[in-house]
């Protein structure tokens, strides 16, 4: 428990350091950091509609974050969530406009297809990882570009809605994820994300398979020795992570945009990965870190209206958080500065 | 008492006076006094957790004492960090080496104090100086080699060179032999003797008695953080040392046993395997282990023991031959199936294979049982049952921990080993493979572990013990096989094993009168 508490404090310090450096940068553009931060908070939580807007931004980050958590806990660094999200989003749209089904069932089928699309997309790097021990970080990153451009191609050349925009025809209302409030596009996707986070945490802790997967993640040689099929487990973990990434895309399509378009949901996959890293791979922790990043995104909308700072300051702060979290990991290991390299020796 | 260095005090390289160090409620060192004369090899011995490493970390400035003071060469000093200790002529070789694998030997030696020329690193000068130093002190290394490719023995030499380059006159070595083969240990001792002959001082932490007896001039014994005695080594016997360390008499005589003649449980035939470099590491190995029998594998580390253990456990493919456990060929099975066939395995590299250090004791004891009742039911884990089982095992194996939720890496080496034994011995196996049963384990725990292994024998299990410590095999084994260069050189009955016979075979020589063809 004290370990976990210490980890928590560490992350809080990392965020605080990032915000402090962010403040200095804001000063450099002649703006008051206090004003910027207050505006951010107001923009994120100022009234009902703004809170709903924040939660709307939180939803895809949360689901992508849970996808990343599955990978991290199982020892697989899935950096391809962005691509799985695009594939899932496109697949859900395809089912949504091209396959008329009864209300409700239509939505579920579309989500299932999104899940399958995400899993199918990650199965390529997963296969190479299992069969040839290819580094999954590199192959999943590369698969992002292919996914984004492939879905663009599909959208522009095969399924383009007649008219000016690079987008598919709208999906049928029978496939919509219902909205929670009348005043916002916030939808049941958020509930899907929350349930998913709790479910994944529970699976890792309370099932034999979850135990095996997390052992492969934390001590692969021990797991192998203990009779766990490490390669198979790694494949399953990547597949599950990709499937959830696909789900994130499906939720975004069916809940928010109601169509697939070029450049849809940019960066949610990466934000989710950062949220998961900041939460140390804990799905429950990711609920809060995703909310934090969601609030940053949503709060930044007000930034350019009320202050002289560009909303890109949010990207800067996120980058600073990544830096300070990684610096913290390095500092924790400073007792043995060669730990990182040693890993490869064995 | 005067602070001015008297003539007698100036003969002392190091004086530690009344050092106390507490970590919360735990007292690691209590009023410890230690005087090390210049030019001696001073051994500090004690069980794990006796406070040896803490004391040395204080001396080296890595920790600050709560009370007490330190004198170097007769003058009071306060070391706030290791840099100050290094400046005062101290050097420490840690138990776990801190080298950069991707850099060359010379680069590692001069890391942080590179020789520069025109703002660039002068590699040629570094290589030349490393070579010169290495030849002068007799620590053979190739300065241009990359450290990642070298053995632990050589890595240790590099660590010592690093310390020398930084101008150390007093060298502290923390359990230097724990990772070495007997050969490498002997070479290290020769080096240490050469150092003291040149007027340097060596402080040597160990819990290996033979070595202490062999190499040291003076011994200081610590127990439970307190200073027990400082004596001249010549006045002491091994038994005296053990009594001072443990606080009671401990026996490492051969364990009494009933003769047994069980059925063959493990039958290894013509087994070959390759190492990481794809070179043959096991060559045509054949032997059997019967129920109720302990077979020992002796040999200098790196002669195929690791490969033998890994092939049997299904962690490395065999290139030829078979190993049948109750009739099933292990070389064709996956680790999970091998375990199901009645195989238990205490691995040699405990922290990598044997446990997940960051996880709890319960979680570590769960490995291999996550699909079995009462630990799990229909794929769902029952952590309450797991904790209960863990508590029972903690009790039975006398694991010193706060409870089943204690993190494994916080335990001492001996207690971590007991966690592994507890898991493996309670699986009701037919065959146990125990690789280095007591490596890095203190004496009190060694005795307990040996008793557990004898219990397994008495329960009719077939046991294969691999150990680089010959005395351990003489204590335990019914038969001893000697591995050399991947080949079984010969077999000796455990009760008739004269040290010289085994020693010759470990060195690759056939004992007289037992001519055997050495076909390669």
Automatic annotation (TrEMBL), chain A:
Task: Extract the InterPro entries matched here.
Answer: ABC_transp_permease (IPR001851)
Q: Which domain of life is it from?
A: Bacteria
A single GO cellular-component term from the record reads: plasma membrane
Extract the Pfam families matched here: BPD_transp_2
Query: According to Swiss-Prot or TrEMBL, what is its membrane topology?
Result: Multi-pass membrane protein
Q: What is this protein called?
A: ABC transporter permease
- Species classification: Bacteria, Pseudomonadati, Pseudomonadota, Alphaproteobacteria, Hyphomicrobiales
Q: Name one GO molecular function term.
A: transmembrane transporter activity
Q: Where in the cell is it found?
A: Cell membrane
Any idea which UniProt keywords this protein has?
Answer: Cell membrane, Membrane, Transmembrane, Transmembrane helix
- Signal peptide start-end: none
Question: Which coarse location class describes where this protein primarily resides?
Answer: membrane
Regions crossing the membrane: 7-29, 49-72, 84-101, 107-128, 140-159, 186-204, 268-293
């Amino acid at each position: 428990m004290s370990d976990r508490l210490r980890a928590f404090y560490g992350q809080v310090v990392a965020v605080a350091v990032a915000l402090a450096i962010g403040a200095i940068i804001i000063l450099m553009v002649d703006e008051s950091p206090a004003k910027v931060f207050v505006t951010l908070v107001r923009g994120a939580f100022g009234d009902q509609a703004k809170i709903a807007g924040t939660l709307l931004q939180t939803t895809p980050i949360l689901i992508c974050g849970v996808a990343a958590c599955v990978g991290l806990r199982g020892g697989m660094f899935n950096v391809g969530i962005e691509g799985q999200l695009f594939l899932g989003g496109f697949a859900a749209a395809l089912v949504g406009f091209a396959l008329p089904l009864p209300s409700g069932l239509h939505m579920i089928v579309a989500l299932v297809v999104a899940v399958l699309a995400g899993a199918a997309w990650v199965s390529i790097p997963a296969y190479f990882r299992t069969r040839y021990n290819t580094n999954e970080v590199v192959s999943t990153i590369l698969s992002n570009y292919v996914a984004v451009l492939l879905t663009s191609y599909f959208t522009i050349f095969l399924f383009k809605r007649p008219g000016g925009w690079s987008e598919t025809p709208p999906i049928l209302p029978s496939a919509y994820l219902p909205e929670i409030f009348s005043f916002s596009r916030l939808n049941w996707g958020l509930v899907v994300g929350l349930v998913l986070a709790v479910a994944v945490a529970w699976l890792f802790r309370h099932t034999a398979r979850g135990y095996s997967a997390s052992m492969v993640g934390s001590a692969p040689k021990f797991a192998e020795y203990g009779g766990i099929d490490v390669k198979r487990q790694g494949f399953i973990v990547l597949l599950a992570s990709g499937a959830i990434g696909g789900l994130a895309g499906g939720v975004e399509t069916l809940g928010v945009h109601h169509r697939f378009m070029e450049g849809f949901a940019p960066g949610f996959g990466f934000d989710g990965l950062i949220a998961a890293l900041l939460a140390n791979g804990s799905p429950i922790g990711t609920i809060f870190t995703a909310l934090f990043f969601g609030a940053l995104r949503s709060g930044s909308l007000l930034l350019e209206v009320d202050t002289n700072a560009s909303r890109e300051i949010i990207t800067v702060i996120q980058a600073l958080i990544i830096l300070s979290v990684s610096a913290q990991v390095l500092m924790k290991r400073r007792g043995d500065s060669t730990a990182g390299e040693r890993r490869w020796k064995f | 008492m005067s602070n001015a260095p008297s003539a007698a005090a100036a003969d002392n390289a190091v004086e530690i006076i009344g050092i106390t160090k507490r970590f919360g409620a735990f007292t690691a060192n209590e009023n410890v006094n230690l005087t090390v004369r210049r030019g001696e090899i001073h051994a500090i011995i004690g069980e794990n957790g006796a406070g040896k490493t803490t004391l040395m970390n204080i001396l080296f400035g890595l920790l600050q004492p709560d009370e007490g003071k330190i004198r170097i060469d007769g003058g009071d000093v306060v070391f706030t960090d290791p840099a100050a200790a290094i400046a005062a002529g101290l050097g420490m070789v840690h138990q776990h080496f801190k080298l950069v694998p991707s850099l060359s030997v010379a680069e590692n030696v001069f890391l942080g104090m590179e020789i520069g020329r025109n703002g660039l690193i002068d590699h040629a000068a570094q290589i030349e100086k490393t070579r010169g130093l290495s030849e002068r002190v007799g620590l053979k290394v190739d300065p241009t080699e990359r450290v990642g490719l070298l053995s632990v023995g050589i890595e240790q030499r590099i660590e010592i060179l690093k310390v020398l380059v930084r101008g150390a006159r007093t060298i502290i070595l923390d359990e230097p032999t724990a990772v070495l083969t007997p050969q490498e240990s002997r070479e290290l001792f020769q080096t240490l003797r050469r150092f003291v002959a040149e007027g340097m001082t060596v402080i040597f932490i160990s819990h290996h008695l033979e070595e202490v007896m062999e190499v040291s001039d003076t011994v200081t014994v610590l127990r439970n953080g307190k200073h027990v005695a400082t004596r001249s080594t010549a006045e002491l016997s091994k038994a005296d040392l053990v009594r001072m360390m443990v606080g009671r008499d401990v026996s490492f005589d051969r364990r009494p046993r009933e003769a047994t003649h069980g059925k063959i449980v493990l039958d290894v035939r013509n087994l070959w395997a390759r190492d990481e470099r794809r070179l043959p590491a096991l060559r045509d190995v054949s032997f059997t282990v019967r129920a109720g029998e302990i077979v020992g594998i002796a040999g200098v580390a790196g002669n195929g023991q690791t490969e033998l253990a890994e092939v049997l456990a299904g962690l490395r493919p065999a290139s030829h031959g078979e190993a049948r456990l109750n009739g099933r060929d292990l070389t064709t099975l996956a680790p999970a199936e091998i375990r199901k066939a009645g195989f238990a395995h205490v691995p040699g590299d405990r922290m990598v294979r044997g446990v997940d250090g960051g996880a709890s004791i319960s979680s570590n004891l769960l490995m291999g049982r996550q699909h079995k009742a009462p630990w799990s039911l229909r794929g769902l884990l029952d952590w309450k049952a797991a904790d209960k089982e863990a508590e029972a095992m903690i009790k039975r194996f006398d694991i010193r921990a706060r409870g089943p939720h204690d993190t494994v890496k916080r335990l001492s080496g001996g207690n971590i080993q007991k966690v592994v034994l507890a898991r493996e011995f309670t699986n009701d196996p037919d065959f146990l493979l125990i690789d280095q049963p007591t490596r890095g384990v203190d004496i009190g725990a060694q005795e307990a572990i040996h008793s557990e292994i004898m219990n397994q024998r008495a329960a009719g299990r077939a046991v294969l013990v691999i150990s680089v410590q010959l005395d351990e095999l003489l204590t335990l084994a019914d038969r001893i096989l000697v591995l050399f260069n991947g080949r079984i050189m010969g077999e000796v009955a455990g009760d008739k094993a004269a040290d010289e016979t085994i020693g010759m075979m470990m060195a690759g020589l056939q004992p007289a009168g037992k001519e055997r063809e050495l076909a390669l």
